[in-house]
């Protein structure tokens, strides 16, 4: 992985600012969710795409009890669509 050469200092609350250039490059916008993880001694930041909690679909999402659910899974849960064998 190539370094972007954009050092930032962590403040007293553990916060950092992701440089605007890097946010633009990665398509990270205000309000997006990101996830932090550790791999081989490095901090990895991944942008979380909004997906259905059950099937991973990215379209026709609705929030239900703080979870995103697609139309097909909503229908399955409501019993209005027969379940498909996988």
In short:
This protein has helices at residues 20-26, 71-78; strands spanning 33-39, 42-48, 61-64, 67-70.
Keyword list:
86 residues, alpha+beta, Pemi-like Protein 1, Chain: D, 2 domains, two-stranded antiparallel sheet, two-stranded antiparallel ribbon
What does the average pLDDT come to?
86
Number of strands: 4
CATH class of the largest domain: Mainly Beta
What structural category characterises the helix and strand content? alpha+beta
* End-to-end Cα distance: 38 Å
Just name the CATH architecture of the largest domain: Ribbon
Major sheet characteristics: 2 strands, antiparallel
User: What order do the strands of the largest sheet run in, or round the barrel if closed?
Assistant: 1-2
Strand content: 25-35%
Task: Give a verbal description of the structure.
- With 86 residues, the chain is of the alpha+beta class.
- The protein has two domains: 1-48, Pemi-like Protein 1, Chain: D (Ribbon), CATH 2.10.260.10; 50-81, no CATH class.
- Helix content is 17%, strand content 26%.
- The protein is built from two helices and four strands.
- The strands form two sheets. A two-stranded antiparallel sheet has the order 1-2. It has a two-stranded antiparallel ribbon with strand order 3-4.
- The chain is elongated and about 55 Å long.
- The termini are far apart.
- The mean pLDDT is 86.
